Amino acid sequence: MNKPLRRIAIFCGILVLALLVRTNWLQYVEADELNENDRNRRIQVERYASERGDIIVDGKPITGSVRTESTLYAYKRTYADGPMWAPVTGYASQAFDANQIEKLQDGILTGNSDQLFFDRTMAMLTGEEKKGGNVVTTLSAAAQKAAWQSLGDKKGAVAAIEPKTGRILALASTPSYDPASFAGAELSDARAWKSLERDKDKPMLNRALREVYPPGSAFKVVTAAAALENGLVKDIDAATDTPEPYKIPLSARPLKNHASGCADASLNRAMEVSCNSVFAKLGDEVSRDRMVETAEKFGFNDPGIDVPVRAAASVYDKAMDRGGNALSAIGQFNTAATPLQMAMVTAAIANDGRLMKPYMIDQLEAPNLDVVEKTEPEEMSRPVSPENARLLQTMMENVVEKGTGGKARIDGVTVGGKTGTAENGFGNTGTPYAWFISYAKDGDGSPVAVAVVVEDSDATGGDISGGGLAAPIAKVVMNAVLNSGG
Amino acid sequence: MSVVTNTTTIGAIEAPSRRNTELMMLAFAVAVPVFAYINVGLAIDGKLPTGVLGYALGLGLLAAVAHLVVRKFAKYADPLLLPLAVLLNGLGLVMIWRLDQSPRLIQRAEAQWGAFTPDAPKQMLYSAIGIALFVGVLLLLKDHRILQRYTYISMVTALVLLILPMFFPARNGAKIWINLGPINIQPGEFAKIIIAIFFSGYLMVKRDALALASRRVMGLYLPRGRDLGPILVVWAMSILILVFETDLGTSLLFFGLFVIMLYVATERTSWIVFGLLMSAVGAVGVATFEPHVQQRVEFWLNPFAEETWAQSEQIGQALMSFGAGGTLGTGLGQGNSDLIMFAANSDFILSSFGEELGLAGMMAFLMIYGLIVERGVRTALAARDPFGKLLAVGLSGAFAIQVFVVSGGVMGLIPLTGMTMPFVAAGGSSVIANWALIAILIRISDTARRPAPAPAPSPDAEMTQVVRP
């Protein structure tokens, strides 16, 4: 009977071997896939297992973490002024994952990051309870509040940057949502989430970073920069050779000017009243490729602007024909920009031609408040020379002083700006967008550059709405920064 | 000439009893779970668990009693079987105790039954009863061949045990329980031993008929029609269990056990071919009209399917548990295997080990089970009588199939069936029955390794000069 016994032994060996192979397959080969399975609640359970760190603005937390009764998730995220800060924080929900800072700095906030390994070990040795670290942002509570309140019921966004450093001061988007409304995993959270997802106003869209709008006339500062940089205009007060009406190249269509007195207007004058013809012609003369070059130095066509939340790529078309380029030079056709991008353009000009990389995380702190990582300002590019930057500043300050941007004027402060109203949709059938970009100067350079966009259902074309709707918001934000001593 | 002192021709070389080896391994088998217990306490509460002394003493006492009984009544037994079983039982207790402290499982129990009762103390009691049965078997069963006398009584008992659950209400979709007031018994666990006894006795008598009276067709020895009787009866039994008790695991276990023993008894490959054919026919046949089985297969193929998630969640959770363990595991007490919720400490306890001890721990676990089977088959090889050989291979084969069916099911290798992992899963029947199984194997191995009794002194010894080996 021993021969079959040996065979049975081999058979049993094969059974055990099959199990060994299977456990290797599950726990080694497939482990990552299983861990990332949508059904796997472990990531969420871990995320809320200990007290979550906070996101901090001006030394005060704008988030919180409360102990819950749930046996699944020990803690739950809370938010102070959730809707106002949502474009900055993002959300952290037990049921619906997380995004933006809450997601990107999850390791620090949960305390599980490798950067906190030393702190974790120390805490384990001293028997302290595990806790997450903090994320200190660059934002200004005053500026954010000003932006949020003055946007009010309007649909739009504000992005404000400190030109010297690239620190983001305000990032507002309306309509917004309260991340606290679905922070848990209860039925009410699911209901809140569903209704937000269904909302046709898209409250969960971060318009300041993630939405691109045609910038309209606000883009003319980029065209002016390209014209100056390429030597097409040397004297901003010299008359340009611009016919009225100006015909778009490769097209018989004359370009409409909303302003009068644009024939042969100087660059400065064209900026002041926002002449389409002058800038379209200049854009054509600069040529598409050199327009692309300047726009890209300002950050257009870059899909990787991470602040650290990734901003949508702004677009200046690289393959259009001459007619398209002429229209793009006045911020129409395929040109599209995020509010952040336009704030970067403004900041670069205000900072004498040096574009600083925008960022909104100042430093990461361990649970014991030791600084784990600090962001240093970093130069991104130099789109214009300091001389040309100053010429652009002169023109933009003139716009506020005498032109379409009068509503942004602040007593005793030098303010430069540019309005814009972008047509939206084929034949301007969509809601036009009112833009205003501006910077303010104090004795020591410029502390703030801001871009405002309002999705405006009442705008009637021309630059009235840009100057009328968006400029006052920019003014309030700049004032908030100036008064807070920023 | 020289004076010869030894008067026998054959020198009785005292075979090493290996009891001291067993004792040393037992020390490890008790120490490892005690450290695991401390580990769980430190991980969950951050301090030395208060129950550690009680646990260590309890497990140590059980191991010591078992060892002393083996030392006295089965001196030549295999030295590995007892330590391996104690190790598994001890680790099972630790994991059950760890899951007793899961707030999720406590909350679930309170929501569902109004109160939560910890399983670890019960399991400790079952382990003690198991060891008592182990001792009882070794004391009463002086020679395993005595069991041969009870061949047909065993058959009747096994049939009764297997059929009884049909008359009791199903629990969680499977009719594998007998409810006697507060006591729930899974008769299948005991039936597996009793039926192995029946098969051994029956096949020992019939093996020649089954092996020799056959026709050779296409290289295979086909059994005579009338010899097919018994295998058909067992096959029918398995199908009946599958259909009426919706218990895939038990059905598979009995049929597999029978085919293995038939093959060993007759040494005819044709029986294996026959057995595989019949199980294929049975499986396909039942699967086509039994929705319960179809469902199990469906969940196995698509554990994460959207439509069936509510029902297949357990399997999915078990798989994710293994994934979460990764190579080294989360550490005892630090995993989230309690997300499996239902039956986390019984049918699915292996996933908790997988998550908290990782791939490394799982490999060790499977090797321990493999070793028990290996010692069992080795015992069968060493046994001197056919009944002992058949019984030893039957018991270890049943053990192997059970381990494969349960862990294969939990790991998603084969469709899931409701059976428990021997020794580690919470549940009295399983622990008690498996201790009896180990006791019988120890008894057979003792008989197998026991030196032959010294022959009577030969009156001619003085006359002949034989060089001792």
UniProtKB/TrEMBL annotation, chain A:
Classification via InterPro entries: Beta-lactam/transpept, Beta-lactam/transpept-like, PBPA_dimer, PCN-bd_Tpept
All copies of domain Penicillin binding protein A dimerisation, residue ranges: 52-135
Gene Ontology MF term list: penicillin binding; peptidoglycan L,D-transpeptidase activity
Annotated Penicillin-binding protein transpeptidase domain residues: 156-478
GO cellular component, one term: plasma membrane
Transmembrane residue ranges: none
Any GO BP: cell wall organization
Protein name: Penicillin-binding protein 2
Phylogenetic classification of the source organism: Bacteria, Bacillati, Actinomycetota, Actinomycetes, Kitasatosporales
From TrEMBL, chain B:
GO BP field: cell division; regulation of cell shape
Membrane topology term: Multi-pass membrane protein
Cellular localisation: Membrane
Keywords: Cell shape, Membrane, Transmembrane, Transmembrane helix
Molecular functions (GO terms): lipid-linked peptidoglycan transporter activity
Chain positions covered by the region annotation Disordered: 449-469
Any matching Pfam family: FTSW_RODA_SPOVE
InterPro entries with a match to the protein in the record: FtsW/RodA
Domain of life, source organism: Bacteria
Membrane-spanning residues: 23-44, 50-69, 81-99, 124-141, 150-168, 188-205, 226-244, 250-266, 271-289, 357-377, 389-414, 420-442
Any one annotated GO CC term: cell division site
Main localization of the protein described in the UniProt heading: membrane
Name of the protein: FtsW/RodA/SpoVE family cell cycle protein
Protein source organism: Streptomyces jumonjinensis
